[in-house]
Amino acid sequence: MRLDRRGLITGSAAALAFSGLARQAAAQTPAEQPPLNQVFGYGPLKPDPNRILDLPEGFTYRVIAQGGETMDDGLFMPGQFDGMACFPAGGSRVALVRNHEIKHGNRSHRNWGPGGLNLERIGQIPADRVYDTFKNGKPLGGGTTTQIYDLATGRTLSQRLSLVGTSYNCAGGSTPWGSWLSCEETEATPETDDVMKPHGFVFEVPALDRGLVDPTPLKAMGRFDHEAAAVDPRTGIVYMTEDKPDSLFYRFIPDRPGELARGGRLQAMAVRDKPGADTSNKTERLWNVGDWLAVDWIDLHEVESPNKDLRMRGHADGAALIARGEGIHWGDGELYLTPTSGGPIGRGQILRYVPSRDEGRPGERRRPGRIQLFVESTDARVLNMGDNLTVTPWAHLLVCEDNYSETNPNFLRGVTARGETYAIAKSAYVTNSEFAGVCVSPDGATVFLNIQTPGITFAITGPWAAFQR
């Protein structure tokens, strides 16, 4: 296996259609998993001599970004790489917009932000482009970076800070109009935390802007522990997940599609005729793999939630519970999402949502949207806490595992249209930190992937068309 990299590593979305997956899955029932010793997918993973990333024979990776590098704006590349999306940027160039889950409450994280170990460069950030500061006046380190990468040459052309002053920027989602929705996974307030403003919002980052964006919180989209977002290009409705054991599944109906800052209506999903249903199957089995349930959507109020109780109020009104909703991605007329700790053994589920033809309009009561239990892990060796996910041109899902363990390494899993899982990559890195930010280049030839700690982005290439049963 060949390793290409720009520097020494020490031991310290694209929005592609589910065209094939949508049609195949509709015609099939989810399959039983193949035997664990069966050759399935791209073959066995080969140990990486560099002890970073194990891949199948014929696949290679290139390290294209690392936490701590000096960027073109003179700031340091923050650590804690998380959600990410890939956008066309003209010719063979793409823009990668990357979240950095720098946590305001973690003292070590303050040294992992764009200012550097001793915050020596923090003064280079324009004050009018900082959303929030600590109470000592220093900017919060969370936000996003944007990297312009040339697929043809394998070279980074530029990288810079694009959003700053936010916190716990975990995942997010790409929009059809070419921006990244960066989501804060926190509900910090000045009353309880070392911050000056409330947090728990979504921020929009245009992928091709050349400087720091105006950090405007999209407050109508709710204040809660945001995880990820996906947009239906047909309606402009934004679907959102929440990383809590008793989370809700949300949708935001904008007043003007594509103009989220103009406001709209926030709702939570309920299972029809089963108010407050628990979809996790942990204590009581609600459904089996392959089952479909009709859904309704409940209006939410006081969505800026000063008491941090939005999900509790929504559940009391009948909204369904999701066990740590994390990754979400839009496909061809449907979306997939990952309750990371769902299922009887708590190792994860994948749900599939198909909206109504009248989604967000009065007619959806007669023709409701439907949600399916697509995958449910009964063995951690098959799927172990799936988190960020995306889709491929070859009609499979790619799912990042988020399992912190000294004995169980994290994998990047593939999922077929029949719900079968297989391994594509395994972390061999010393931290065994979570995989995150998986996305695919517009030409389908390169898969981008992050290791969160200390912060590494890979460009993976190989014979993606050579999948075997």
Write out key terms for the chains shown:
6-stranded antiparallel β-sheet; single chain; 35% strand; 3% helix; mainly beta
Architecture overview:
The chain is built from two helices and 27 strands. It has helices spanning 19-26, 310-316, and strands at 3-5, 45-46, 53-56, 60-66, 81-88, 93-100, 142-150, 155-166, 169-174, 179-184, 202-206, 226-231, 238-242, 250-254, 264-271, 292-299, 325-330, 335-339, 349-354, 370-376, 386-391, 397-401, 411-415, 421-427, 435-440, 447-451, 456-461. It has a nine-stranded antiparallel β-sheet with strand order 12-13-14-15-16-20-19-18-17, with no helix packed on it. A six-stranded antiparallel β-sheet has the order 2-3-24-23-22-21, with no helix packed on it. It starts with a strand and ends in an 8-residue tail after the last strand.
